[in-house]
Write a structure and sequence with these properties.
Blueprint (H helix, E strand, L loop, with lengths): L19 E4 L4 E4 L16 E8 L1 E6 L2 E6 L3 E5 L4 E6 L4 E7 L1 H6 L4 H8 L4 E3 L7 H11 L7 H19 L1 E3 L3 E2 L12 H13 L6 H7 L4 H12 L3 H19 L4 H7 L5 H12 L3 H7 L10
Helix pairs in contact: 6-7
């Protein structure tokens, strides 16, 4: 069969903190490196990012707009929107959590919350008192016990519960004003779409195409494409490409691997295709990106 719908378009990156815990197969990350740094340039990644500011304050530029998160704030935003920290108070510390987009979309959250996050909002809890620092510290402590059976699933369940509390207790968008209390949980993402996203996440490193994705969930390719685009606002091809590029960016930032090895490891058909996609997404080559995104000390910006 001719693979004329195979793709190599970009996704958005996933920087894996050097001291972190990952639930296998889901790229669910709780960072235990709690210092907040000024970033040398904006970056993006495919997950929903959750930040709880333990101490200090940090100013973010998110999608070209600026807002400050202060001690006690619990914030949420979609990492696919280019963002960076531009100012950080000395001694600022936070708990940073990366939640896979498919987990966020599958959670029983209200449409206003989901829509605001995916539209580029920087959301914070309207009632910070409901989100105590101790709760997030316990997550970090759980991360340091990866040998305990089932700890990953418990951490994921706890994060989803925190999201539900955010949803029902109220939130505001620092970039777009106040929101009323969320409505009761409504219309979660269709199961078939979630299954397609899961198949892509597990197989994007291979030369898959739309037909492969559709067959994996027992749908006709045209119907699969329509359902996917209706649910997420982008094509299956674009999502595969973005997923590959996010994985590649993660490796560019967090490892010293050869760039050609990264290209093939993440599913790009050639090094030239990888470079074209990367430059189209980030405006520079992978090598330039690696140099630009590292702090003067040699640590990657987080």
């Amino acid at each position: 069969m001719k693979r004329d719908d195979a793709v190599g378009e970009p996704d958005t990156p996933t920087f894996l903190p050097l001291d972190s815990f990952v639930v296998p197969g889901h790229d669910f990350i709780v960072s235990t490196g709690q210092d907040v740094y000024v970033m040398s340039a904006a970056h993006a990644h495919s997950q929903i990012e959750l930040n709880f500011m333990l101490e200090g304050a940090a100013t973010y530029v998110h999608g070209g707009r600026e807002a400050t998160i202060r001690a006690g704030d619990f914030a949420l935003f979609w990492g696919a929107i280019a963002h960076r920290t531009t100012a950080v108070e000395p001694g600022s510390r936070y708990v940073c959590i990366y939640l896979p987009l498919e987990m966020f979309l599958a959670a029983p959250l209200s449409e206003p919350l989901r829509a605001a996050a995916l539209a580029g909002g920087l959301l914070v809890a309207a009632d910070p008192a409901r989100f105590e620092a101790a709760r997030f510290q316990r997550l970090v402590e759980g991360v340091r016990e990866p040998a305990v059976a089932g700890v990953g699933e418990l951490l994921a369940a706890e994060v989803l519960l925190i999201l539900r509390w955010l949803d029902v207790s109220g939130w505001r968008d620092l970039l777009a004003g106040e929101h009323a209390r969320a409505r009761p949980a409504a219309g979660v993402m269709p199961r078939k779409v979630l299954d397609m996203m899961d198949f892509i996440a597990r197989n994007a490193h291979r030369p898959i195409c739309v037909t492969d994705v559709a067959e994996a969930v027992a749908l006709h390719p045209n119907y699969a494409m329509t359902r996917f685009r209706t649910a997420l606002g982008l094509t299956i091809q674009a999502y595969i490409g973005r997923h590959r590029l996010m994985a590649a960016q993660s490796l560019v930032l967090s490892t010293k691997k050869d760039l050609a090895a990264i290209a093939f490891e993440t599913g790009f058909g050639s090094v030239s295709q990888f470079h074209r996609s990367f430059r189209a997404q980030f405006g520079c080559t992978p090598a330039e990106f690696r140099r630009r995104m590292r702090l003067p000390t040699g640590r990657a910006a987080v």
